[in-house]
Design brief:
Helix content is 23%, strand content 22%. The chain is an alpha+beta fold. It has one domain: 4-Layer Sandwich (Double-stranded beta-helix), CATH 3.60.130. It is globular and about 50 Å long. The protein starts with a strand and ends in a 17-residue tail after the last strand. The structure holds N-oxalylglycine and manganese (II) ion. Manganese (II) ion binds next to loops. N-oxalylglycine binds next to strand 5, strand 14 and strand 15.
């Protein structure tokens, strides 16, 4: 059975059916999924019974995974699931929701700011695949913004202004926006800013997108306040309702998004209720900008 797609967002995002992703898929089926991703950027498989093993097997059939993130504040002995997954849940190693003021929770809810996964890494992520094992009784939606349509809707003057600009991204910049700044020297070192192009061209479709995230805190050669204001104007533009798809989770949903062409953010939910969502992440193809050679530590 071929992949069936039904558009669910305003200008992107589709629900898919017709391929059983709990079973090994063929290279032809993987190609169909990549083609769907190139067209819709967000592809949703509803209510699929995946385990860690089958989620990882499906992920690997679409490409190599990104090396795990080391800055999520969960130490090695506090991991709830395999280190090859991003644990995006609100649960500690005993499957209990974090206390409201737990540092791991406060760092994690930085996800509620618009972002693109791993934009703080030299090689940022390609796709993210997020699977819901349990969902709260209300809230906890994920919103996605179509950065290609948002780019295309900019006026020519703005397109010219931003052409060629390079930003610096760091998890420190996004956490600073929500008042979280008590990082150790070691954490700061891990979160050293990296460079990303503000406009990127999709390698498969050749179409341009804005490449923004709350992790972006500087524009090379610009005064910081002016950079932050432009980034904030562009983010406000790109996240208007007409460019946004809101995913309301059901248990078992798998949502795949292309980080090169979308931003996303989590929405709040009752913090004492478990929300077990687990992410596998595909590696990107390369840097989006030349990196500055590392300057001596200050
Ligand atoms: C992520 C993420 C949002 C959410 O998995 O990268 O940002 O709603 N998730 O959990
Ligand atoms: Mn994310």
């Amino acid at each position: 059975m071929p992949l069936n797609l039904r558009q669910v967002g305003p200008c992107f995002a589709a629900e898919a059916s017709g391929i059983d992703i709990t079973q090994p898929i063929t290279p032809e089926q993987a190609d169909e999924i990549h083609a769907a991703m190139n067209e819709y950027a967000v592809v949703v498989f509803r209510e699929v019974d995946l385990t860690d093993e089958t989620q990882m097997a499906f992920t690997l059939s679409l490409g190599p995974i990104e090396p795990p993130v080391t800055t999520n504040l969960r130490s090695k002995d506090q991991l709830r699931i395999s280190k090859n997954f991003a644990d995006v849940s609100n649960l500690d190693e005993n499957n209990k929701p974090f206390e409201r003021d737990d540092r791991r929770r406060l760092f994690g809810i930085g996800n509620r700011l618009w972002h693109s996964d791993s934009s703080f890494k030299v090689v940022p992520a390609k796709y993210s695949l997020l699977h819901a094992r349990s969902v709260p009784s209300k809230g906890g939606d994920t919103e996605f913004a179509d950065m290609r349509t948002a780019y295309e809707a900019l006026d020519d003057e703005t397109k010219t202004e931003i052409d060629g600009l390079i930003c610096e991204h760091s998890q420190m910049y996004s956490r600073r926006l929500v008042g979280f700044s008590d990082f150790t020297a070691e954490e700061r070192e891990k979160m050293r800013p990296v460079r990303q192009s503000l406009v990127r061209t999709h390698p498969d479709t050749g179409r341009k997108s804005l490449y923004l995230a709350s992790h972006a805190g500087e524009i090379i050669g610009w005064p910081t306040p002016e950079a932050m204001l432009l980034l904030s104007d562009l983010t406000n533009h790109a996240t208007q309702r007409e460019f946004v798809y809101k995913h309301q989770w059901r248990k078992g949903d798998l949502v795949i998004w292309d980080n090169r062409r979308t931003m996303h953010r989590a929405r709040p939910f009752p913090n004492h209720e478990p929300r077990d969502v687990r992410r596998t992440t595909l590696a990107g193809e390369g840097p989006t900008a030349e990196q500055e050679s590392v300057v001596a530590a200050e």
